[in-house]
Amino acid sequence: MSEKLKNGWTRVVFGDVVRQVRDIVDPEKAPLERYIAGEHMDTDDLRIRRWGLIGDGYLGPAFHMHFKPGHVLYGSRRTYLRKVAVADFEGITANTTFVIETKDQNVLLPELLPFIMQTESFHEHSIKQSKGSVNPYINFSDLSWYEFALPPINEQRRIAKLFLCLEQTRESLVALRDSQNLLLQSLFNSLCSNAGHQKDGPISSFCEFVTDGDHNPPPRIHKGVPHLVVANLHDGRIDENDCTYISEADYERVKKRYSPQEGDVLLSCVGSIGQVAIVPNNYIFSADRSLAVYRPHSSELLPEFCSWLLRSKASQNYFNTVATGTAQLHLYLNDLRRHPIRLPSIDNQKKIVKLMNQVKDYISRTEKRTAEIISLRTKALCIFENQRT
Fold it and tell me: What is residue 21's three-state secondary structure?
């Protein structure tokens, strides 16, 4: 179905110009090395930056969808997370991740497809047609009748070139941010090495306690008290973008094990170990076994210094050394409590934190510029929604 618009544009139906690739393979027999799961795709980022290796652990029967370079991957669970990515290698994914390609590149350029799937109207359609509440999902048939405006093929080439330039600019900023983060690590090591008199000992001797979250977490609900897991820790802060919740009644039970307090430091200790965040003021949440909690003695260990310390290369190396497990790494409380550290005086901790935060401000500026590029791209994407006769 199509409708002629101005300047040669045509309003088309998604399912008329794209197809779902359903190439099913056996991961144990196919000559493939990598797989993509939902957590390997980032919100509003077309680049795949992480993956898993086939054979490192049990994948489950859902991981049998074959994809190739150039295919577009779309997360069909919790579509409000806006996970659209372009494969630049061959691998497998689960059947909950759609593998999509254009039907005819003379009608719709493959390079343009992922940008069309990043438009606000596409996300709105996908979210509106999703089913379920706690873990909403969408079927490909529900996506197939999404309508959008498609320009002539020559115009598609010009528009695709513009969007690719924006993506390259974003990638350059991401590379700059990564370099700045490496500088941040080197700076912390240097400042600590030159901090004068220091105390040595296990980190638990400088904390009121080191514990972890609930070992029998209650059922999740759509709204309520945030229940944090590893994915909710990001760059020293708590990120609720992919958060689940528990009821107030269940929270009253789990807080008997751990009741949050401003300045507590959280550390991921299952799966993606070593992620850190500081609990802000008046923030109530629950956590499960995957998060460890440090409550520093305020007279000896500043929460912000503790956060930088746990993110340091030395600490991360320690965590990787004591972690156990193959398919999923675990850090246990006894090892976390025994973590040997060298602690500068409170005054030197304050100076180090101040300098670290100043460098972090530069990184925040880079991230702000990256966000501006993303915003510019979002505005430019409206071109597919604003064509009228």
Answer: coil
Pairing mode of beta strands 97-102, 72-75: antiparallel
- Tell me yes or no: is domain 2-150 CATH 3.90.220.20: yes
* pLDDT tens-place string over residues 51-107: 989 887 778 889 999 999 999 999 999 999 999 999 999 999 999 999 999 999 999
- For the segment(s) 198-343, the CATH number from 3.40.50.720, 3.40.1280.10, 3.90.220.20, 3.40.50.300 is 3.90.220.20
What is the spatial order of strands in the sheet that 34-36 belongs to? 52-53, 34-36, 91-94, 63-67
Instruction: Name residues whose C-beta falls within 8 Å of residue 300's C-beta, 6 or more positions apart in sequence.
Output: 199, 206, 343, 346
What are 275-307's pLDDT values in tens digits? Answer: 999 999 999 999 888 999 999 998 999 999 999
Phi, psi of 2 (to 5 degrees): -145, 155
Compute the C-alpha angle 366/367/371, nearest 5°.
Answer: 120
Q: What is the pLDDT of residues 352-386, one digit of tens each?
A: 999 999 999 999 999 899 989 988 888 888 887 76
| Cβ within 8 Å of residue 28, ≥6 positions away | none
SS3 readout for 173-219? HHHHHHHHHHHHHHHHHHHHHCCCCEEEEEHHHHEEEEEECECCCCC
The angle formed by the CA atoms of residues 240, 65 and 140, to the nearest 5 degrees, is 65
Rounded to two decimals, the pTM is: 0.64
